Amino acid sequence: NHYKGHNRIKYFFKYFKPVVFILFYELFNSPHRFKYIKRFFHYFSFLIARIYDAHQLELELSKWVDLNKKEIIFYSYWFNLWVFDLSILKLKYPNMNIVSRAHGGDYDEAQRKDGFYLYRYFQMKQINKVFPISNYGLSYLSSQFPAHISKISSSYLGIFDNGINPFNRVNDGVTIVSCSTLIPLK
Q1: What pTM, to 2 d.p., does this model score?
Q2: Burial class (CB in 10 A: 0-12, 13-18, 19+), 155
Q3: Which residues sit opposite 101 in a β-bridge?
Q4: Which residues, 6+ apart, have CB-to-CB distance to 81 below 8 Å?
Q5: Alpha carbon distance 152, 171 (integer Å)
Q6: Which of 45, 52, 61, 73 is an S-S bond match for 97, by CB 3.0 to 4.6 Å?
């Protein structure tokens, strides 16, 4: 990332239309608008940096694929900054399809230190489909984004239950195996 904070004004003018659109969309749709206003310059700088990164992503992707194709689908395993960058690119390439899984840490605002996900209402406008990995996620996202409920479907991780594998006790200790983050919630 070659973005430098002191170039924020330059990038603001270079990407004026998407910056203004995203800011106003979020301010008018997010229940967190006062948080955006309170820390405006911080969140504005973050947006400019993401727009810069989206442009860099566009340059790299255009080496491999025609972004104007009607059948182009981008799939993200995490509902994170990549989805935000792709959402920004979709302003320029409206035929893009963005699909993402969503894990608890990707959407549950109670798990965030600042209590919300930046520019999430804009991302929900842009994304084509979100697949939370649990019914809790389906319920949570549906209640947060009722205008986009048709885009949200649960899709569990894992495989079909084929029964219990034989257990070989190696020692008398406790063995914990996780493919995830071990947090009290889990």
Answers
A1: 0.83
A2: middle
A3: 131
A4: 50, 53
A5: 44
A6: 73
